[in-house]
Design a protein that fits this description.
Layout lengths: L11 E6 L2 E6 L5 H9 L13 E8 L15 E5 L2 E4 L4 E6 L4 E7 L8 H19 L4 E4 L1 E5 L2 E6 L6 H6 L5 E4 L2 E6 L6 E5 L13 E12 L4 E4 L2 H11 L14 H14 L2 E7 L5 H9 L6
Parallel strand pairs: 2-3, 3-7, 10-14, 14-16
Antiparallel strand pairs: 1-2, 4-5, 5-6, 6-7, 8-12, 9-10, 9-11, 12-13, 13-14, 15-16
Helix pairs in contact: 4-5
Amino acid sequence: MTDGKSPAPVPEYRLEVGDALFALRCPQPGLAEGLAVWFDRASVPADAGQPVVTLEVTVIAHDDQPSFPRSLLTTKRLLGDGAFDISDGLITGRFDPLTGHGEVRVKAALMTGRLTRIFEQVLYQAHASARARLGRSAWLVHSSSVIVDGQGFLFVGPSGSGKSTVAALSAGRHVLGDEMSLVRPAVGAAGWEVVGTPFNGTFRTKRPGSAPLRAILLLEHGSAHELVDATEAAAVAVLAGEIVPPVGLDEVPGPGTLPLMVDAAHAIAANTTLKFMRFTPDPGFWTMLSAAFGLPPLA
């Protein structure tokens, strides 16, 4: 016999990346709360709209010592019927692109401390699935981004080029983050918009927001602060390598993946001011940028 009561609802943590809303169903006690701490933002209210992608997330206890690939896509295998395996069981799951519903099972070690950054790559793939379902273009870009005077500045370069340094040296300004920015077509206007994401680098005091993309700064270490015009071809060569492969949960990279990334880089670069920014690790580069782009002094 039952007491006639409905089962308790499964806790959810809802996260928004641009205009794509994700619902992470968390049946295990404390998981939803832990995700809110990791992303340092409360769950999006349930009345904010229907999620584009819903994933049930289960953390799996294990006795082995798993390996942690730098990129989850390099070890991802499709098993048929929407099922996938990443890094020999580190992450397994299934996703139905028609309904937007799926499940993800993650070994517990991957949800511990900074390793959670690797788990975030599952949500990069969820974002690609969400964009496909929405039929809208938007690109996740490994970058730091800052809003000044209502204008967005995107700092791009390979690992070690100084993205986190730029964020840390931008105190007093609106720092969207130092790891991952979203670039999407501006609504009702030419050009692009840069949007903050919840994904984590080492800079933890990021703030949500968005702004028209004023310039892309291609980072290089130097002995002094210097801005140099970048050709579109040179910018595309850097930018394409920092765009997250648009590979959904039920997909693996294929022959068309890199051309899509290059095409996206061309489209973004064609409508944006492009500069190489050589800099030293001090905030003086903002004096240079303020003069170059007519920005007001920091209040």
